[in-house]
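Hey team,

Filing this mostly as a record. A colleague (T.K.) asked me to run one chain through the structure pipeline before their review meeting, and I want the input and output archived in the tracker in case anyone asks later how it was produced. No errors, nothing strange. Just documentation.

Input sequence:
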Amino acid sequence: MAVWNPDNIKDVAESIGIASLNEDVLQALSSDIEYRLSQVLEEALKFMRHSRRMILSTQDVSQALRVLDIEPLYGYESTRPLRFGEASIGPGQPLFYVEDEEVDFEKLINAPLPKVPREISITAHWLAVEGVQPSIPQNPTPADSRGQELVPKGPGANPTLAAINGSDNVTIKPLVKHVLSKELQLYFSNVCNAILDENNDENRVAALASIRTDPGLHQLVPYFVNFIAEKVTHNLNDLFILTQTLQITSALLENKHLLLDPYVASIIPPVLTCLVGRHLGLSSEPLSHHPLRNIAAALLGSMCRKYDKSSRTLKPRLARTCLKHFLDPTKPLGANYGGIIGLQAIGGTEVVRALILPNVKDYESILREPLDDEGSPKQAEAEAVLTALVGALQTLEDDSVSGMNGLTNGNAGSESQNLEAKVGQLVAGRVLAMGRPQFVKALLNA
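Output structure:
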């Protein structure tokens, strides 16, 4: 059933000399008129909403006609509501017309002149800098974003609901959208596909080199950060993908043209997952995840050195997390290994002296059982953790001080007992077997 009355079309046709029209033609024209009217009204409503008004005006309709490339109506641009009068030209034939407003010339002449309008000027402001929107009056505020939730959404939303709910006076500013050009979208897609292609080393190296040196990747930084987080979250069993995501992170950090300070908080979680994650890679290869953890530790150390000044709490928070995974007996040995090398990379000698050395003796109880399990995968992991502990403690040795190649017979026994009392029997045995007296002295004096 058509909403537009076909009789109106018939009247117009008769007024231009078309005596009779087929009923099918009338129905088709009626449907087309309904479609055109709804199209004009939809565009007019867009102008009304963007003008932050709740009442549709004739100017909105005129602008909609211009957008649709239709000649606009003339003579109805008044901002005041139109007043229609009714006149009868015969029985049952009313005629409606717009009443002309009477103007008093005396009042018009004596009325004060309007204020001189300001000269047209153009000012520029930043919509977003490196993906972060500055807090200036021209940009939307968080309050504007919350107010957006009160506005009815969707094609079938009723614009009067906001007024019914008491939010008709809410002013809404459109949020800034981050739009990528087709060239950048194609570049991002090709680079990601090349890096994750395990069979083409040449393309992978070229893609990482492009990320490392290209100066025009500012707009793609949040997309790379999101890509890294997504791949790490969904591919914990694939060491190749995890390694490549860390390579992308390293390339972004090495790019001197990018400002990554706003994204440090988003980059840290994927790297931490690769460092202290419970299960990385396939369980049939117990030590295959250690190179991945080493790369993650090196990345954390690099980020701490680079962004320590801009984020004062970065290093303490990372050290607290790594220490928790180092000392937690419920965590697998791989997570303990990641905590040890992470602490060493984050703070170097200071962190080793303050956090690792006082806890080495207590941690020995966790390593004893897997070390005694001959031939098991846990024994290999425990050996790797013990080696990492000794390697971290070696940072305490002062290489600039020369010493003897071995312990003297006079004090070897006492130093051995003191060393076992400080770092435990397992670590003390490894340190003494190395035959480095300066290393022993450094541990005893730390």
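Quick notes for T.K.: The longest helix spans residues 23-50. Residues 159-165, 170-174, 399-410 have pLDDT under 50 and may be disordered.
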